[in-house]
């Protein structure tokens, strides 16, 4: 497995935010920050957040945020101010007016400035865990939130729990003889005209490369070689880490859909992909927030 010489960050893969993890051990961190007027809060409702503009999140003061959400410490901004999360369930809706409305991570993550996209995916990921994992998975007792929202301790059995991340591979498959063709598949859950890269979760005891080989064999019927890592990003639907690869099919004629999860596979020309990226043509490609979009775009622009 090799990485590109000049890797491009995935849409939700920005590395530059300060999570200030050393601050999490302060037991009074959240209470003090909620009383500080310089603190900024990102409110999320499910996977939706308020926008200040098309490419910026709308942060509010602690006093402006709902008091009944799940609160957590996100880190600090470039000036050192504390950033907090207030996570609400999706049925809370748009809890206050925002200058540019409310948008989901899927819809806006690909157009936000890098730091805001990173904070958004951090917030949706952590907020989902805080809402959904309140009880100890071993004994069922309601857990206590620690470390500024980044861990839970069970008062019954004493076990510690942390936000869970499930690794998954996602692969763009190139043609063995024609560099201008890319293999994509259509999932049974999608509209017939929607196509994307092939993806699947890494199984217990399996390497990333092993998952690539298995998933492509299962879903598209192809054996692959030349597996190359290209990038990764969190995808909190519900808690994935998507690890992106390119791989080359050994035999283009082997390609076939499994008929269950994948209902169609097609070799697309570079012209087909270019038209789809421009919003023309007869297929729909993944949205700009997804790593699948980056894989397809990088192949089209010869950055693969």
> What is the makeup of the main sheet?
6 strands, mixed
Q: Span between N and C termini?
A: 14 Å
Q: How much helix is in the residues? A: 10-25%
List the total number of helices.
6
Low-pLDDT segments: none
Q: Could you report the average pLDDT, rounded to the nearest whole number?
A: 95
Q: How large is the radius of gyration?
A: 21 Å
* SSE string: HEEEEEEHHEEEEEEHEEEHH
Tell me the β content. 25-35%
Shape field: globular
Number of distinct beta strands: 15
Structural class: alpha+beta
Looking at this protein, list some descriptive labels.
alpha+beta; six-stranded mixed sheet; three-stranded mixed sheet; 29% strand
Question: How would you describe this protein?
Answer:
The protein has 304 residues and is of the alpha+beta class. Helices cover 20% and strands 29% of the residues. The protein is built from six helices and 15 strands. The protein has helices at residues 29-34, 105-108, 114-132, 208-220, 270-277, 291-300; strands spanning 40-45, 48-53, 56-57, 70-76, 82-88, 102-104, 144-146, 151-153, 160-161, 166-174, 181-187, 198-201, 224-235, 240-249, 262-269. Strands 10, 11, 12, 13, 14 and 15 form a six-stranded mixed beta sheet that branches. Strands 1-5-4 form a three-stranded mixed beta sheet. It has a three-stranded antiparallel beta sheet with strand order 3-2-6.
């Amino acid at each position: 497995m090799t990485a590109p010489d000049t890797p491009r960050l995935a849409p939700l893969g920005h590395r530059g935010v300060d999570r200030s993890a050393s601050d999490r051990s302060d037991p009074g961190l959240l209470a003090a920050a909620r009383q500080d007027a310089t603190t900024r809060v990102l409110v999320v409702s499910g996977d939706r957040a308020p926008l200040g503009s098309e490419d910026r999140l709308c942060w509010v003061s602690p006093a402006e945020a709902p008091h009944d959400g799940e609160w957590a410490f996100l880190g600090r901004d470039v000036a050192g101010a504390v950033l907090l999360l207030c996570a609400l369930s999706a049925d809370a809706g748009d809890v206050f007016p925002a200058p540019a409305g409310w948008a989901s991570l899927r819809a806006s993550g690909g157009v936000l400035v890098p730091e805001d996209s990173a904070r958004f995916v951090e917030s949706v990921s952590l907020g989902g865990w805080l809402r959904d994992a309140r009880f100890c998975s071993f004994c069922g007792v309601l857990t206590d939130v620690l470390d500024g929202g980044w861990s839970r301790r069970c008062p019954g059995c004493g076990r510690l729990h942390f936000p869970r991340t499930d690794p998954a591979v996602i692969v763009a498959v190139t043609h063995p003889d024609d560099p201008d063709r890319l293999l994509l598949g259509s999932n049974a859950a999608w509209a017939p005209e929607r196509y994307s890269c092939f993806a699947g979760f890494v199984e217990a005891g399996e390497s990333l490369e092993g998952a690539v080989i298995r998933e492509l064999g299962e879903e598209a019927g192809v054996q692959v070689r030349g597996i190359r890592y290209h990038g990764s990003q969190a995808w909190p639907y519900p808690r994935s880490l998507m690890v992106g690869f390119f791989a080359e099919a050994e035999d283009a004629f082997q390609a076939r859909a499994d008929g269950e999860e994948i209902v169609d596979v097609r070799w697309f020309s570079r012209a087909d992909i270019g038209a789809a990226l421009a919003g023309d043509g007869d297929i729909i490609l993944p949205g700009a927030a997804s790593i699948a979009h980056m894989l397809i775009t990088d192949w089209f622009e010869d950055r693969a």
